[in-house]
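Q: Convert this sequence to structure tokens.
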Amino acid sequence: MGKKLLQQRAGRGTAVFRSPSHIKVAPARYPPQEKLGEKTLIAYVAELLHDPGRWTPLARIITANGIEFYTVAVEGLGIGQEIQIGLEAPPLPGNILPLKAIPEGTKICNIERRPGDGGTIARRAGSYAVLVSKTPGKALIQLPSGKMAELMENCRATIGVPAGAGRLEKPLL
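A:
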């Protein structure tokens, strides 16, 4: 008789194998586009937070009309910094724009696969995607793995590289 496999042990669902979700800060997602509206909004970074289980810090962002959400913090983002969200926003680090408004060759992160899903691509510390080209209705991006993906042009993305990239330079003891 052998031992139980690790998968079989984990299936019991005891505290050893469950994720401690009570210590998570919040989901890192963009708010729905209906809440933001069509025009460009000005928002401020209220706080930078450490989220357990995630190497990338989170930024708590508050818009001018009172909407509060958490997103992946990019390198160079600071507390009190003004960011812009929308089609006419300039392509500066931290700003959130649709892919059709981002210039080609820009490093982007937290990209939506489908418009309104909140951002799912390139959210790990130091990983980023590059906007390669745009065609009517579609945008071609190079993923962190090197593969190419064609996404809809109204998917949103954050300009910049997620913070926390130097985590592998110092080993954990």
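The CA atoms of residues 7 and 64 lie 48 Å apart.
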